[in-house]
Amino acid sequence: MEATALLPAEAVAAARSPASETAAEAATTGTGAAADPIGQAVALLPALPPDDTGDRYGLRLLTAAWLRGQDSEATRRGYYRDLAGWLDYCARTALEPCSARRADIDDWSASMTVNVGGNSRPPSAATRARRLAAVSSWYTYLQSNDVTDRNPTLLVKRPTSAQITASARKAPTLSVTETARLLDTAEGRAIELDTEAAWRDAAVITLLFYTALRVSAFTGADLTDLDTEAGYRVLWHSVKGKGPDGRDYVRLDGELCRVLDAYLSVRARRHPDRVTPPGPLLVTTPHPYDRTKPGDKRLTQRDVTNILRRQAELAGLPAASRLSPHSGRRTVITTLLGNDVPLAKVQDLAGHADPRTTRGYDDTNHKLASSPVTDLTRILAGHRTATPARAKQDGQAADQ
């Protein structure tokens, strides 16, 4: 985990200060925070004083330990950014983090902003709740190590679940025809260009829209995770919230296997004996002119987002600029539920513990089209006699 990749925009100014540069240098040489990427990133955070030499429980060392204890890389990055926002507030207001009170958290919460298109605006309820939860987790960790005696976030008013749900911005979902057009565009371009980058992009699209995997599952997968199980080809992957040892597999069917095999075959061309050495499943390609960039680095979520939006733009999809990797997961679940695939099977594919979570991904209106209300109306119609419409009809018949 690179320190610069973790650093959020609101901490950039503080991180570029001479004091932060000295701290980062100390972390690299091992004289400050732990000499590792997470330690280096923590050394860039504002408002955290340097740890005393030999202090096992300094704020920076504990913060690095707190980050390492998170279940996934995505959680570490998110918590780092949210904590950086709070510490930036502390630095700007000359507040020592361990002396903070509820009023300070309230003031920070009220002053929160997000940057959208170069403009600042108040964050959504979901963003506000996430930031408060991250800072609360940090203070709880410090309390458990007897570094502070209070968690100033505990009594802070947080957004309700209803407010969070109402404010959540869902990733756009594609229709069946849009999905097919995107898949055809990516594979057709790969066939036409026959380059490693084109086939990799096609593989990314097929993984997104044929498996319902979270993006971290396949960006974190290695070539050795391709396997067979009970005669089927599968991809082993990490499971959200299960820690580093949490693993499961997803079945890979023909359409996906065809594109993935083509990508791996083209990728092998640049290796001796056409054998790709062990490593990540999806990688960057060598720079055509810069030999210092030989490729073979694991793709990031940002890489996948850029690939998806670029391919969607080529396919002429209206939502191209707003798509995210989660669009693939939402689209797969919506498509399956909208075509009468049993909820239990879709829930199993998605890896949801609660079927209501799976239902929450369903963006179709098939529940309206297949509503049993019409059946109920038909059933009751034959037994009702006192409706105004029927009384009117009976009266007209009597007049005749």
CATH architecture classification of the largest domain:
Orthogonal Bundle
Structural class based on helices, strands and sheet pairing: mainly alpha
Mean pLDDT level = 83
State which percent range the strand residues make up: 5-15%
**Secondary structure: helix percent:** 40-55%
**Total helical elements:** 20
Shape: globular
**Spatial order of strands in the largest sheet:** 3-4-5
Radius of gyration based on Cα positions = 27 Å
Low-confidence stretches: 1-5, 7-34
Note the main sheet: 3 strands, antiparallel
**CA distance, first residue to last residue:** 86 Å
Order of helices and strands: HHHHHHHEEHHHHHEEEHHHHHHHH
Instruction: Output the CATH class name of the largest domain.
Output: Mainly Alpha
Total domain count: 2
Region (Disordered): 275-297
Domain Core-binding (CB): 57-143
Keywords: DNA recombination, DNA-binding
Domain Tyr recombinase: 169-375
Task: Please give a structural write-up.
Residues 169-375 form the Tyr recombinase domain. With 400 residues, the protein is mainly alpha-helical. The protein has two domains: 3-167, DNA polymerase, domain 1 (Orthogonal Bundle), CATH 1.10.150; 176-359, Intergrase catalytic core (hpI Integrase, Chain A, Orthogonal Bundle). Helices cover 54% and strands 6% of the residues. It contains 20 helices and five strands. It has a three-stranded antiparallel sheet with strand order 3-4-5. A two-stranded antiparallel ribbon has the order 1-2. A hairpin with a 2-residue loop joins β1 (114-116) and β2. α4 crosses α5 and α6 crosses α8 (125-144). The longest helix is centred in the N-terminal third of the chain and has 20 residues, at 73-92. The protein is globular and about 60 Å long.
